[in-house]
């Protein structure tokens, strides 16, 4: 087991597949989105949540300053020559257009998180760092995301589950998603899904992703379908998670839960979920639920300590585990050598709705691999936190693979680590 493993060098939104890796693809989507806004700007009323956002901006000079400056501060060199954001009013119109659309499939140029596509460059400016941490602005984006989530959970959002080139039933999408691994009705027009969110939180079939060594309590399994990002040992109770190296700060990740001291000096395993991954979480061990809760947090904040310039913050993955909205589940493993385990499912950008399974309540006993909950509309990153001495070794597939953006994801419920004897 390694005490520290290098993380990937590229922007976490692109590395995870939430935005295209090619900037030209992103610019093409933004141009098309602006054209859609222009085509329907015929006096159509704004969504009520956008009207509320506009009222906040008009009434609060600090909010207005932050939002105006984060647009103005995007550099004007050739790299950022296409300035798709020019004003706060235009920003609100672009967001308004998103609230009645569902993400389409695009082979190679996917924009799975359109709000992030709109906000991307502003997130890395000095004013943007402040804006997305400001409670007033963060609360407003929470309301925007809730409004969009209501649409994505409605039957009207199923229009993208079609055979068109941009549809999720297209041949390319079927291959990318691996729909055969999931419960669906091939004969139904929408594969039997009630909404976009229903499709995106699809369940595995009974034979997909079997639990590794189900009867061996020394084998710990992967909680998510995710790509290893970092393994850290000797983690501290409190640390400066916002600095360049982004060390883990247990008190902050676990929202000052009383169990923090159990994990001091222990191990954090972190992995990220890509856009097409399975987005439900499962218990890494057999054990009893001690506590399970959702901790509110930020939605579009990034670490300002990374990157070559102000609008390219790199590798915010660890930072997000401390500040983003997240579900925290504490499980007392049946194996006393493992003891208490923390599962932290971290929402990111649009992907911020962490839904706990109704059966995950204090005192409930879970089989290894049992479902814990899911990310509504996608996923972000996960952390598994272990006590000192609990882990003997990590499986080879679980070790981070630096400099490899195409690393294979560790399958959910597969062998992740082996406990100390």
UniProtKB/TrEMBL annotation:
| GO MF | phosphatidylserine decarboxylase activity
- Any GO BP annotation: phosphatidylethanolamine biosynthetic process
Matching Pfam families, A to Z? Answer: PS_Dcarbxylase, PSDC
Output the superkingdom of the source species: Bacteria
Residues annotated as domain L-tryptophan decarboxylase PsiD-like: 47-175
Record region (Disordered): 1-21
Task: Name the InterPro entries on file.
Answer: PS_Dcarbxylase, PsiD-like
Q: Which UniProt keywords apply?
A: Decarboxylase, Lyase, Pyruvate, Zymogen
Q: Does the keyword Lyase apply?
A: yes
The record, for PANTHER family, names: PHOSPHATIDYLSERINE DECARBOXYLASE, PHOSPHATIDYLSERINE DECARBOXYLASE FAMILY PROTEIN (AFU_ORTHOLOGUE AFUA_7G01730)
The protein, known as:
L-tryptophan decarboxylase PsiD-like domain-containing protein
What organism does the UniProt record list as the source? Subtercola boreus
């Amino acid at each position: 087991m390694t005490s520290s493993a290098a993380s990937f060098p590229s922007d976490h939104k692109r590395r995870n597949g939430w935005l295209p890796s090619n900037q030209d693809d992103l610019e093409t989507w933004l141009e098309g989105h602006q054209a859609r806004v222009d085509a329907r700007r015929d006096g159509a009323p704004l969504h009520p949540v956008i009207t509320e956002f506009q009222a906040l901006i008009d009434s609060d000079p600090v909010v207005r300053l932050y939002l105006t400056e984060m647009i103005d501060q995007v550099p004007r060199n050739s790299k950022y020559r296409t300035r798709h954001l020019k004003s706060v009013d235009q920003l609100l119109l672009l967001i308004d257009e998103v609230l009645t659309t569902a993400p389409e499939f695009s082979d190679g140029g996917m924009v799975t998180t359109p709000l992030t596509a709109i906000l991307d460059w502003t997130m890395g400016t000095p004013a943007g760092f402040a804006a997305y941490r400001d409670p007033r602005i963060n609360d407003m984006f929470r309301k925007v995301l809730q409004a969009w989530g209501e649409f994505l959970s409605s039957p009207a959002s199923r229009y993208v589950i079609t055979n068109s080139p941009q549809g999720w039933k297209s041949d390319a999408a079927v291959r990318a998603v691996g729909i055969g691994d999931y419960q669906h009705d091939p004969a139904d027009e929408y594969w039997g899904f009630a909404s976009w969110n229903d499709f995106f939180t699809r369940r595995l079939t009974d034979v997909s992703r079997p639990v590794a060594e189900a009867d061996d309590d020394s084998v710990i399994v992967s909680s998510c379908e995710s790509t290893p990002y970092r393994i850290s040992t000797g983690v501290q109770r409190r640390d400066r998670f916002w600095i360049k190296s982004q060390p883990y700060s247990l008190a902050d990740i676990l929202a000052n839960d009383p169990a923090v001291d159990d994990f001091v000096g222990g191990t954090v395993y972190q992995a990220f979920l890509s856009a097409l991954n399975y987005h439900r979480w499962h218990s890494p061990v057999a054990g009893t639920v001690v506590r399970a809760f959702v901790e509110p947090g930020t939605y579009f904040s990034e670490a300002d300590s990374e990157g070559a310039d102000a609008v390219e913050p790199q590798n915010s993955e660890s930072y997000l585990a401390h500040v983003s909205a997240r579900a925290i589940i504490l499980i007392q493993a049946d194996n006393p050598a493992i003891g208490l385990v923390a599962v932290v499912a971290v929402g990111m950008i649009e992907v911020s709705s962490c839904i706990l399974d109704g059966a995950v309540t204090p005192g409930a006993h879970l089989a290894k691999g049992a479902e814990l909950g899911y990310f509504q509309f996608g996923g972000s990153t996960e952390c598994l936190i272990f006590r000192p001495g609990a882990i003997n070794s990590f499986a080879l597939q679980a070790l981070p693979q630096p400099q490899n953006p195409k690393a294979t994801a560790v399958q959910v419920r597969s062998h992740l680590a082996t406990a100390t004897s």
